[in-house]
Structures are given as structure tokens and as C-alpha cells.
Amino acid sequence: MSRRRALARELLEANCAGMVNLVVIDCDEPDAELRGLSARDSHALPNLIISNPVNGHAHLGWVLAEPVTTTDYARLKPLSYLTSVLEGLRRATGGDRDYGGLLTKNPFHPRWNAHHVHYHRYSLDELHAPLAASGSMPEPGWMRRKAHLLDPSGPGRNCALFTTARRWAYREVRHHFGDPDGLEAAIRAGAAERNQAFSDPLPAAEVRAIADSISRWILTRSRLWRNGPKAYEETFHAIQTARGHKRGELKAAQTGQIRGRVEREAFGWER
């Protein structure tokens, strides 16, 4: 819709398609404004606080100096960094985990109280530093955990879909050797199916871009595709062997612990 009509709505889309330049946290607490402003030694001061005067809930917004694209899947590192920083801000302010970041309160609408706190544009490093110092940043590897991958939110959806679809696609290769078009179609379908499992799915165009990026990498850079079925079978057997050894070592360690406990108990009885 036109800018004039959009500015008359209570809610606005926070970012344009394909990029994030406004990081928004939804804080459903009666002291949400105070949580946003109490930034000392906790988190960077938000640029914008838009609150509901009835219940005190608010959207807290930080403006980025450089937008982070959500469609350039050759560079997932900035998107992963943004997702981690967003999670850190959510933890620091007690924000809603299920908020997808798509719509935010319109600061020009009379229903809300809007506070434009300052006009500094943040780099991701500037947002990260106080979060790391206060212990609010998520632990390493948190985005690879099953709970996050199954139903992420915000920009984390892109990373989660890329990760889960990529892992599945590497196994799907074995059904499409010599048929690149079939592989591309299968990966698109697989990515779309995984996206629909999210409570807040990504737009179809972004899902297709993720799927095409995975297909492009496999078809142009993957040794498995280039060397064919033989290379796939060799890699598969190597992985299975390594997993078997790992399970064997774990079982041996557990058996040793049990044996040691039994022997200690037996020794105690003899004494």
C-alpha cells in the first residue's frame, strides 16, 4: 500500500523484503519501557521505544548502521551473527521468544506512546559488546540445537531452514545422480516442507532462494556430486564406521564406570 495509507495503520512491517535494518524486540511486561531504558552494563540503549499505554507492553527497536541481507545465502555468517545478537537482546530485556519480528507498532499512530531515544546507528559489534559483557549472549552452538531448528523465529528462520534443508539434501543426492533438474526440484520441495513446519514460515521467495543456493553448491562444488555414486558410498561408509567407533567407545566407557562402581561396592562389603 502507499506510504500515506500505511502510516495510518496501528502496525507496520519492520523491515523491507530481503534485509533487516531495524532490530525489534517485543517485551510483554508492564515495565517494558524501563527494561529498554535500563541499559547500563546490560545492553545498548534502543533507538526507539513504542509502548502500549494500557498495559505497558512495548516494542524496543535498534537501528543498524548497515542492513543485514536475508537473501544472500553465500554469506550466512552475518545473518547468524544478527540472530545471536537478537537472541541476546531478547534475553537482556525479557522479550517474547515467539515474536517473529515481522510487524511492529507504528510510532506515528495515536494508540501508542512513542519515544525516539537517540539517532545513533549501531553496528552488530556495538550491540554485541555489552551483551557479551553482561552474559546475555547465547552460548556457542545454540542455533544448532533441535528446539531452535524445529521452530526458530525472526531472522533465525533463514539459518535454521538452510541448516536443516542442507543436511537433508546431502543425503538426497544419492537419488538424483545424473539428474540435476530432479535434484533441484527435490530440494525446493524439501525446503518448502520444512518451512511449513515453522509456526511463522518464511515467504515462498526466500525459501526458494535458500533451496537454489543449496542446489547450486552441490552441483558446482560438492565432491559427492562430482565423483558420483562411488564417492557417495565411500563417504557414507566412512561416516557410519566413525559413528560405530564412537558408540563403541561410549559403551566401553559406560561399562567401565559401572564395573568400577560395582567393584567399589563389593570391596566395601568385604571390608
Entry summary:
This protein is α+β, with helices and mostly antiparallel strands. It is built from 10 helices and 6 strands.
The SS-based structural class is: alpha+beta
Helix tally?
10
Helix content: 40-55%
N-to-C terminal Cα separation, in Å?
85 Å
The radius of gyration is 24 Å
Spatial arrangement of strands, main beta sheet = 2-4-3-6
Biggest beta-sheet profile: 4 strands, antiparallel
| Mean pLDDT over all positions | 86
Overview of this protein structure:
The relative contact order is 0.11. A four-stranded antiparallel sheet has the order 2-4-3-6. A two-stranded antiparallel ribbon has the order 1-5. The chain has 271 residues and is α+β, with helices and mostly antiparallel strands. Helices cover 53% and strands 13% of the residues. A hairpin with a 6-residue loop joins strand 3 and strand 4.
